[in-house]
Amino acid sequence: MDSITDNHNAGLTDGMHLMVDALKANGVKTIYGVVGIPVTDLARHAQASGIRYIGFRHEQSAGHAAAITGFLTKKPGVCLTVSAPGFLNGLVALAEATVNGFPMIQISGSSNRNIIDLQQGDYEGLDQMNIAKPFCKAAYRINRPEDIAIGLARAIRASLSGRPGGVYLDITTEMLSMTMDMAEAQASIFTPIDPSPVLSPSSTSVNRALKLLSNARKPLIILGKGAAYAQADEAIKEFIEKSGIPYLPMSMAKGLLPDDHPQCAASARSLVLSQADVVMLIGARLNWLLNHGKGKKWNPDAKFIQLDICAEEMDSNRPIDAPVVGDIASSIDKMICKMEPFEISCSQEWRRMIDEVKKVNADKMRIKLNKPTSPMNYFNALKVISDVMSSHKDVYIVNEGANTLDNTRNIINMYHPRLRLDTGTWGVMGIGMGYSIGAAVTSGKQVLAIEGDSAFGFSGMDIETICRYKLPVTVIVFNNDGIYRGDGVNQGGGADPSPTTLTPGARYDRMIEAFGGVAFNATKTVELEEALCAALASKRPTLINCVIDPSVGLESGHIGNLNPHSSIK
Ligand code: ADP
Ligand code: TZD
Ligand code: MG
Q1: Of 97, 151, 207, 435, which has fewest CB within 10 angstroms of its CB?
Q2: Does residue 262 have a pLDDT over 80?
Q3: Across 380-398, average pLDDT
Q4: pLDDT score, position 568
């Protein structure tokens, strides 16, 4: 008989059991993590209690899986890590979730407080809660089992309310084994009421916004991933269609309305940014991704309306003429209700201008997509993928890299909300396998990850996780032998490869064979098409090594202008 059973027999429970009971009572269905001291038994017990436990090869991927679960479900995804290094590995994902506005909770085991606080050198000893604080929305430590329910409620509420984000929850080794009366413990469990309360904007702010919009000659709506997160899809569509205003989807808002919608201005981006006179941002920040709303890409006289739940976001980069602070569902509903007397519409002339540019750009793109090359380039490879995916519109697309990211975003149309998951606000590498696993586990649907060869390397080992859990994930590695390109030169003339060079001719497909997955090596478009069709039909874990010309990528993809320009060469 083990000590846990002993405790149960004595009418006692302990911190570890109570933590699992509280998670379960709060509707946590999945925990993503890596086990070790002091949380191995917690994961075992979670699994025994009916919570799905997905064990990863690296905590960063587990954290990304939790973050994307939060984005997709509007409930915090949960990631479990061990102390010190495990905690630190997960912290990158927690910080990214916070920057992206995705609700997640990183629960980490930690060492004994008395040793930590006197810096006496415990096993994996680190003052984790204080380290986590600057990287997340909130950080809490639970020191006693009787505080578990409150600690978890605080974490859930902090992750979901206002602008969502990452929360750190520290559970100490000693707390996990402290005992408590079973009946009292059960009575302490509760679920927080209304953790992400409706925030209705003031009528004054809505009227101000509608008035501004009614005076616009060249209005534009920009949809961001906050709009996607809000799940107000029908209302957003209604407002856009009733108003007739063209819209630009930010990367993860693609598909909120289908990319082939007549009002979509994605392929006339430069025109609409440089000419729009009133811009309405819905769940999108004026950060670097929109050139901070100023500079030569923008009409200097443009006026801005911003719909956001976060009041302090207003005026962060430039003055906002009509701030509408509220949750997007309430804000859009109110705008629809009040729009009629304002006679919001869009001039045919503005729409025609946009349509003309769209047509010119589509013609230019068609030429690039249809030009055969050997080896393949980004365009003809993505043409194949785009054609195949047009009959698999409900498949998630996970996407990272530089050229691989930018070209995929432009070429692969999305038709449904929240199916495109990518590098997000920081534009970082490493989300690939974590987001793929999180999306597959949460939705039960198929995922296609389109990965640069460098990008894939950041989380590639977790293809073992994909194979172990038999997830319907296909990974295409755009293998151009390097970061941006594979033809870099060592400028010192030595034998070492250049800083951007990766192993030439690497066979990433062989990696998945080690774990029982399906492997393809595609050197021609016809091989790529066959491989992708087979992968989607089989739903088995598959990796396609897609050989791309090493000499066709752009330095930093479409953001080469952000590289510092050294005056000394
Ligand atoms: P993108 O990168 O797609 O432009 P951002 O991440 O910059 O989008 O912006 C998302 C914005 O959406 C954030 O400012 C966030 O506060 C806001 N937001 C998130 N959820 C909601 C919501 N439910 N209601 C209103 N605003 C929201
Ligand atoms: N490290 C992290 C965590 N994030 C980053 N964004 C980078 C490094 C720098 N970086 C980029 O911004 S893109 C990229 C790196 C390393 C990889 C680009 O190469 P790729 O894609 O093979 O993934 P392409 O198709 O060759 O451009
Ligand atoms: Mg590459």
Answers
A1: 207
A2: yes
A3: 98
A4: 67
- The residue ranges of every structural domain in the chain are 12-188, 203-355, 370-555
Q: Is the pTM of this model over 0.70?
A: yes
Q: How far is the CA of 206 from the centre of ligand 2 (A)?
A: 41
455 C-alpha vs ligand 3 centroid, how far in Å? 7
Residues 341, 248 contacting (CB under 8 angstroms): no
When pLDDT is averaged across residues 276-285 and rounded to a whole number, the result is 98
Among protein residues, the one with the nearest Cα to ligand 1's atom 7 is: 285
Given the candidates 3.40.30.10, 3.30.230.10, 3.30.1360.40, 3.40.50.970, the CATH classification of the domain at 370-555 is 3.40.50.970
Q: Is 430 in the pocket of ligand 2 (CB under 6 A)?
A: yes
Q: Write the pLDDT tens digit of every residue in 161-190.
A: 999 999 999 999 999 999 999 999 999 999
Structure tokens at 348: 């045919």
- Using alpha carbons, select from 551, 249, 522 the residue that is nearest to residue 384: 522
- Ligand 2 atom closest to 479 (CA): 22
Contact 156, 195 (CB under 8 A): yes
Can you spell out the DSSP letters for 438-489? HHHHHH---EEEEEEHHHHHTTGGGHHHHHHTT--EEEEEEE-SBSS-S---
Q: Going by CATH, does the domain composed of 203-355 fall within 3.30.565.10?
A: no
pLDDT at 569: 58
Domains 12-188 and 203-355 belong to one CATH topology: yes
Pairwise CA distance, residues 130 & 82, whole Å = 16
> Residue 397's pLDDT is what?
98
CA distance 398 to 377: 20
Rounded to the nearest integer, the mean pLDDT of the chain is 96
Residue 105, helix vs strand vs coil = strand
CA gyration radius, the chain: 25
So what's the pLDDT on residue 558? 87
Tell me the CA–centroid distance for residue 219 and ligand 1, in Å. Answer: 20
